[in-house]
Amino acid sequence: MPEARAPTRIQRKNRAAILDAALDVFSSQGFRGATVDEIATAAGLSKPNLLYYFPSKEAIHAAVLEQLLDTWLDPLRALDPSGEPLEEILAYMHRKLQMARDLPRESRLFANEIVQGAPRIHDVLSTDLKALVDEKVAVIRAWMDAGQIAQVHPYHLIFSIWSLTQHYADFDVQVRAVLGPEDPFAAAPEFMETLYRRLLTPPDQA
Length: 206
What we know:
The structure is a single chain. The chain is mainly alpha-helical. It has 2 domains: 55 residues, Homeodomain-like (Arc Repressor Mutant, subunit A, Orthogonal Bundle); 141 residues, Tetracycline Repressor, domain 2 (Orthogonal Bundle). It contains 10 helices and no strands. Helix 1 crosses helix 4, helix 1 packs across helix 6 and helix 5 packs parallel to helix 8. The chain is elongated, with a radius of gyration of 20 Å. The mean pLDDT is 93.
């Protein structure tokens, strides 16, 4: 059986252009509202040319989500069990906030998928994501049991970090409407660091 040829530079460039355009379209229109024609136009390709790389809208969406999910899990993977507990949790919060600032399209795409019931990533949520969260919750519980950080519900701690940080991407229009010309990310890091330091500092160290 002949070996599959490595993609050419043009093929890699076109595939990357399609996925970037799809990210734009899916994050603004949602899966149902997006069309292959819109994605092709945004990518600067003809529809037949796009379909050479991806046979359907579903295939494009699956490729974008696969690329996104690995990126999405990286900040939590980086939480180091051997690190200083409070600083590790704050660093995780800062990484998530930076993602909201630098990757707003990805955040909105993920939010759209979840709001629709996660039909295309439910298996990943209940396997890869759950396993990673369970692993890090065990680390956080060990820190709490050792008295290194205050006792709080570890799962809801992670949920709160997700909610607070991703809000700046998913509700960007609302945030900017309220703040006006102020950069949403100017004061957010200091506010969240103060919030979590007060929450997680043990009472005898406060």
